[in-house]
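Regression test case RT-17, inverse folding.

Input:
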């Protein structure tokens, strides 16, 4: 059963009491769907006919979502370049490897670039994934300029006919403006060689409303084209997916639901909402 299902089935049988509404409010808030959307849903509970309630909530949630396409924007000429950004520990490297694996398995030639040059362990982590999934990983020496390695990756991908170039970047605090500027620099140097098709913001689905603030600051520095929400496995925080997309109007493209290489799935809004409400 989804997060809201038991309440909705109760409300479909009898009118919600004040106590019911309060309990439902707690569930909604703790799902991280946000205060604004919580109050709107509660208004619908008070107002709608019980048999139409689920549909009314589903429609209300859908109307808040981005209308942009959720598929990865593929390059028509040259490699499809995907830049992976976000704060520390959200699942960037894991998601980069998952995406690389998906494309490699579908017969595409994929290059991963370890542009997280601050920590040797970060480079090693991507290399380990690369070996496991049979995808080449390009890395520079530690502490080298991340933009320089990204540039080398772009050149190599273009010259050697790669279909996908996936650039993993270092986690950065959205409050550090010099690091945010560095992302812009990475994008610009890659664009000297080939266009950047996607900038995916990776959000840890368990970080709560602060995640939305992170995303907003990143969106102010680089042109985010998609969101990946990770760690939704077994989480009761599923509301964050909707809250983030509603706040940013940037489409959620993938959801991570585990540490395994296959644990990434394209986000499908209708199914996701239906699941929350069932
Ligand atoms: N449960 C779960 N763990 C994840 C998921 N994605 C990443 N992780 C774990 O989160 C931790 C940080 O991931 P990592 O990719 O290194 O984050 P990065 O710092 O953003 O590159 C690792 O232990 C990953 O295995 C996910 O979807 N579900
Ligand atoms: Mg990483």
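Golden output:
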């Amino acid at each position: 059963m989804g997060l809201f299902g038991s309440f909705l089935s109760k409300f479909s049988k009898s009118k919600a009491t004040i106590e019911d509404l309060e309990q439902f409010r707690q569930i909604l808030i703790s799902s991280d769907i946000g205060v604004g959307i919580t109050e709107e849903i509660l208004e619908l509970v008070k107002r709608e006919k019980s048999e139409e309630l689920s549909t009314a909530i589903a429609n209300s949630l859908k109307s808040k979502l981005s209308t942009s396409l959720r598929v990865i924007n593929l390059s028509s000429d040259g490699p499809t370049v995907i830049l992976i950004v976000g704060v520390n520990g959200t699942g960037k490297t894991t998601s980069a490897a998952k995406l690389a694996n998906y494309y490699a398995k579908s017969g595409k030639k994929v290059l991963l670039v370890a542009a997280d040059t601050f920590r040797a362990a970060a480079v090693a982590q991507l290399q380990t994934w690369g070996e496991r999934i049979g995808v080449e990983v390009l890395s520079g020496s530690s502490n080298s300029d991340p933009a320089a390695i990204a540039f080398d990756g772009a050149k190599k991908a273009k010259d050697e006919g790669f279909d996908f170039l996936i650039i993993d970047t270092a986690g950065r605090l959205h409050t550090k403006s010099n690091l945010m500027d560095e992302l812009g620099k990475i994008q610009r140097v890659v664009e000297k060689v080939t266009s950047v098709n996607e900038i995916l913001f990776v959000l840890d689905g368990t970080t709560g409303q602060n995640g939305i603030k992170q995303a907003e600051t990143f969106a102010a520095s680089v042109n985010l084209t998609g969101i990946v929400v990770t760690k939704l496995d077994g989480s009761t925080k599923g509301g964050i997916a909707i809250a983030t997309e509603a706040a940013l109007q940037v489409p959620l493209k993938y959801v991570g639901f585990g540490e395994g290489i296959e644990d990434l799935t394209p986000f499908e809004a209708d199914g996701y909402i239906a699941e929350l409400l069932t």
